[in-house]
Amino acid sequence: MPTAARPFAHHGIAFGCDYNPEQWTAEVWDEDIRLMGEAGVDLVAINIFGWSHIEPRAGEYDFRVLDDVIGRLHAAGIRVNLGTGTASPPAWLALSHPEILPMAEDGTRRFPGGRQAWCPSSAVFRAAALRLVEAVAGRYGEHPAVALWHVSNELGCHNALCYCDESAAAFRRWLEAKYDNLDALNAAWGTAFWSQTYRQWDEILPPRATISTRNPAQVLDFHRFSSDELLSHYGAEADVIRPLSAAPVTTNFMVTAHIENLDYWSWAGEMDIVANDHYLDHRLADPTAELAFAADLSRGLGGGAPWILMEHSTGAVNWQPLNKPKQPGEILRNSLTHVARGADGVCFFQWRASVQGSEKFHSAMLPHAGTDSAVWREVVELGAVVERLAEVAGTRVEARTALVFSWESWWATQTESRPSQALGYLDQVHAAYGALHALGLTVDIVAPGADLADYALVVVPGLHLIRAGEAAVLTDWIAAGGTAVVTFYSGIVDQDDRVWTGGYTGPLREALGVRIEEFAPIAPGAELQLSDGSTSTLWSERSHATTAEVVASFADGPSAGSPAITRNTWGDGTAWYVGTLLEPGAFRDLLGRIADETGVRPAATVRGGDGALEIVRRRGTDASYLFVVNHGRASASAEASGFELITGMPVTGDVDVPGGAVRIIREEAAA
Hints:
With 671 residues, the protein is an alpha/beta fold. Among the domains are: 207 residues, Glycosidases (TIM Barrel, Alpha-Beta Barrel); 198 residues, Rossmann fold; 62 residues, Immunoglobulin-like (Sandwich). 30% of the residues lie in helices and 19% in strands. The strands form six sheets. Strands 5-4-3-2-1-9-8-7-6 form a nine-stranded parallel beta sheet. α9 links the parallel β6 and β7.
């Protein structure tokens, strides 16, 4: 976090929403604020897309509406998460400066009319945005209602990669700072291949669409540059705010299944508090497990500190192929799963459902149907529950298992030329996390090279790109007594996308005790048999064990006879390797066996139910809190003693959790 990071001070767990008063009349504002009070809303994000309203013409500011709305919210005791308003430029700016518009990889400009129609490298856009930020922060920096600053909105959601000439110039400056000279760049990019050697900086372009495949090392560096460029924009806005306001500054991350362009490990330290937007993705096999993963990753980005769920939904979104509403009770379960995994704030997009625009069919706390609706009643119920959880705020999640996650590996895996186009980085990440989630194990998500001293078990799925130093952290930790599980396509390239030679898994090879000679992927949907009776898909490898014990081999397919699962003693620890994508049940069973051997257990013993119970413990100085979320239909129980915060009842020995319900127990001191 920034030097002397400013804490987000809030009583209890924040309960809030995005609010767009510019879409409504003043009479509606009064009703909205009254209903916010009824629902328990105490934090409202405003001015997220306010630029065209508060600066209708260049240099002309009109704050009357924003003054009025902030005043009304403050009078009602509702705190403000104040947006800088810079997420989307107004029409007048794009008209007078069309050069700010982003360019796609095919060289075509994108027109205004949507949102985020700006190039992250545009000096004209940045200057105009910072003038607006200075005006907003100068006016409201000391306003008592302002609890938090919200820079832009979902930075990079649509415009992370811009290929225009101004971006090209900025990319070259970034490369010069990184490599210092062209010899170093040529070596890093392997430009001897296909006669790509550069002799002067001006020859280098962004990786625009080519007639063939592009240089993967160049593409990788362009991802890094693009992430840094947007982070620079965030920093520029934050630097304007900080001298004018003592309130903490953040922006909303998009830790979710479909946003890959920003390396949030490099961003997190610039936030006063980590905030995330998350929406259930029904294109995934298990959206609930992905929700838990995103919450754990959000917590990991903050180093384990509490974070804020800046946006999620009460029901359907508007941008998936099929937009499903939530089932009864799902709003409560989803929200409290985030709280269980470290969120000290639960906010929604948005307060009142829009009646116009692209998001008019996106759900809201106050739906089109109004207060006589199941959604509204569930929102009010959730607000009352959140109010009862005030004492949980500030506590931290306990975990003895870690999963290593890397945006750089995501980028490096998803290249145009790879062993199988069906291979995706998140396939492995979600498979590994899903198995741990099914076992009821709480997981910290950590960056490559992170300190692993607090963990008994570390899972490393598909870490395709790994630096020598990052590998040493892992292998030294194993040698000191740790247990690691590494899955296929790990340790393949270094930071320059250069293959580690001598046998795949590169710097992890000796610790794993297996040498992989050749990849042998299989067609999507095809199935492989393993010698232990389990099945797998997507991937196999022609390999042999050097020092490892072979736990299971490929019984058929292109790698028949080669090891599929191995276990190796490395120093005082154990290194497992899984060379295929096990079917979910087999992966769960394998990780369950390994967890048992390492002494890693769920936060509490579970009895009954249909396997859909989620259990997480948050611990503070004076108390610990056991969250039990039942995503299934069957009733279950968990071992617990203390006081249950939702029902207000004491618990002795076990807590019963009906299907679809949540229980939160303040545990007795012995827990």
